[in-house]
């Protein structure tokens, strides 16, 4: 039994090792004489930096072994005609940091509050053709129209830049959500079961808002899904509560007081 060594780089003018410093060496080992020649020969390509092993398991039945001496051309033909599998173990240089963020509801009981803007307009529920929130100045006898919101706090897998994520519930299984309409984020109300909001990720982030408190009482609510969009009310009384892109929009109010 004889061993034949073949330099692949020397035989293939077009062969250029890809990111491998060490030169590849192919070792061809002829099987014992008593073995069936049609069972083939084994070829191993070993590159330590990448732990690559290519095994030639079987020669074509038309291939005849003439001896242990091979020309470069013959070895190249054997190599490319009989490779059946290639296993590559890559080296990972960077950690994966793009895992989807998710939010789990806190075990603390939800906070229940009435919300009014800085012009003392309270949020009320209007049920017409559509159900929506409006901001209205209420007289003393109409305070019962105020909507008590249920603020559920969430624990994020990734710490937000500011604020704390919450969900805003309006009555039983009715929650505020920020969705896109004609390419613009809008505020709406959706019916969803509370147990479906215990863990939130992906598109369900439309139900989350980052609650930020400045001073002691002034609060703002920024959409988690659409960064830079805030829950807002109009200066005009009785208008729909909606989203606006910035806290500096002249005709919208984005700061509130929780009562």
Automatic annotation (TrEMBL):
The text of the family note is: Belongs to the IL-1 family.
- Localized where? Cytoplasm, Cytosol; Lysosome; Secreted, Extracellular exosome
Q: What is this protein called?
A: Interleukin-1 beta
* A single MF term (Gene Ontology): cytokine activity
Q: Which Gene Ontology cellular-component terms appear in the entry?
A: cytosol; extracellular space; lysosome
| SUPFAM superfamilies for this protein | Cytokine
Q: Which UniProt keywords apply?
A: Cytokine, Cytoplasm, Inflammatory response, Lysosome, Mitogen, Pyrogen, Secreted
Gene Ontology BP annotations = cellular response to lipopolysaccharide; cytokine-mediated signaling pathway; fever generation; immune response; macrophage chemotaxis; neutrophil activation; positive regulation of cell division; positive regulation of gene expression
Q: Signal peptide: which range, if any?
A: none
Which Gene3D superfamilies does the UniProt record give?
2.80.10.50
What's the superkingdom here?
Answer: Eukaryota
Secreted listed as a keyword:
yes
Q: InterPro entries from the xrefs?
A: IL-1_fam, IL1/FGF
* Record keyword Cytoplasm present: yes
């Amino acid at each position: 039994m004889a061993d034949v060594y073949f330099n692949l780089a020397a035989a293939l003018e077009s062969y250029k090792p890809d990111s491998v410093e060490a030169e590849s060496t192919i070792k061809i080992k002829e099987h014992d004489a008593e073995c069936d020649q049609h069972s083939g020969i084994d070829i191993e390509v070993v590159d330590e930096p990448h732990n690559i092993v290519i095994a030639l398991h079987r020669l074509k039945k038309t291939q005849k072994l003439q001896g242990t001496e091979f020309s470069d051309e013959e070895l190249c033909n054997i190599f490319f005609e009989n490779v059946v599998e290639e296993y590559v173990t890559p080296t990972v240089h960077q950690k994966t940091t793009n895992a989807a963020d998710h939010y789990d509801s806190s075990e603390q009981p939800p906070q229940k509050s009435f919300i009014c803007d800085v012009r003392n307009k309270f949020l009320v529920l209007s049920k017409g053709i559509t159900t929506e929130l409006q901001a209205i100045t209420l007289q003393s006898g109409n305070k019962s129209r105020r909507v008590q919101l249920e603020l559920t706090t969430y624990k994020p897998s990734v710490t937000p830049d500011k604020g704390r994520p919450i969900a805003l519930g309006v009555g039983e299984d009715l929650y505020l959500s920020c969705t896109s309409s004609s390419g613009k984020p809008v505020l709406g109300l959706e019916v969803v079961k509370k147990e479906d909001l215990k863990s939130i990720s992906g598109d369900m982030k439309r139900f989350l808002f980052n609650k930020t408190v400045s001073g002691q009482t002034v609060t703002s609510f920024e959409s988690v899904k659409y960064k830079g969009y805030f829950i807002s009310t109009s200066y005009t009384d009785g208008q729909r509560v909606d989203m606006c892109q910035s806290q500096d929009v002249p005709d919208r109010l984005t700061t509130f007081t929780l009562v």
